[in-house]
Fold each of these.
Amino acid sequence: QLQLVESGGGLVQPGGSLRVSCAVSGFTLDYYAIGWFRQAPGKEREGVSCISSSDGSTYYADSVKGRFTISRDNAKNTVYLQMNSLKPEDTAVYYCAAAFRPRPLSATAVQAMCVHRGFGSWGQGTQVTVSS
């Protein structure tokens, strides 16, 4: 059974850093594109960053570009989102999601998946709060 479990959320001061992790089980990460999404109270879920399965093409939302970095360790079946220079507006529940895409995706395709939430399997989320 395909399962995604997020961890690493918490409370951090503005300007601080946090790394959230997405541990996957029940499938081989190598063949899946992975996305990080977030949802703040009263707002729609938005794509933060997504990464292709094999060649590592990535997409970042404009709001996090230059501050967040997505990475994957297929040997550990884990995907990470390193978040630096955090702002109060980054406060949200962060979700990871997976989609079976065994062939490399272009940067355009990764962006489309992220923007349109083109993922079928989702984790339960981890809360990230940025506050002083």
Note: Helices lie at 107-115.
Amino acid sequence: EVQLQASGGGLVQAGGSLRLSCAASGFTFDDYVIGWFRQAPGKEREGVSCISSKVGSTYYADSVKGRFSISSDIAKKTAYLQMNSLKPEDTAVYYCAAAVGTYYNTVLLTYCPAHDDYDYWGQGTLVTVSS
């Protein structure tokens, strides 16, 4: 059974940090690109970052570039999203997802897979940043 388990969310003050984890099971981890998305209340889900563990390539949305860092541990089948200098506008439910990396695992990432290209989704973890 394929599972993605996102965790690590919580309440933090503006300027603070959190590290989210995405634990995967049921598929070959590095055959997939792992992406992080977020959805704020009343807004559409947006892509935040993604990583190809096989190539070691990452991509970030402009809104988080320089503040967030994505990484992965293939042996642990886990991806991480380190979030620093958090802002109130980062408040959202954060989701991790996995997209087969047939193409994305062969190139340096200049964009992440589109939302509909992801095959598996985690349940989300809530991040709340207070001002």
Note: The radius of gyration is 14 Å.
Amino acid sequence: VQLQASGGGLVQAGGSLRLSCAASGRTFSTYAMAWFRQTPGKEREFVARVDVASRTYYADFAKGRFTISRDNAKNTVYLQMNSLKPEDTAVYYCAASSGRGWNIWGQGTQVTVSS
């Protein structure tokens, strides 16, 4: 599986963005998928994940504002981000796991939230 993230951009505080992560390969449905984010000088942090049964899990800061979903027919995972805050500014990465940790990563997409 190879991952290609897109959908980042510049948005005002309170706005919304939807990130997409398209996966190559025929086994997408067998991977758990996740979004992480990273800002300069900080460690990459978990945002949300969706498992193969489409169960979802969120970091506390994402609960109620972000929604992760997957479309296995399109080999794509999404992150809908609403009520964005300047502190959400980061490079967002999608990742895939076949059960041995998050070992497949996309290239990242920049999200900038202006105040």
Note: The longest strand covers residues 90-97.
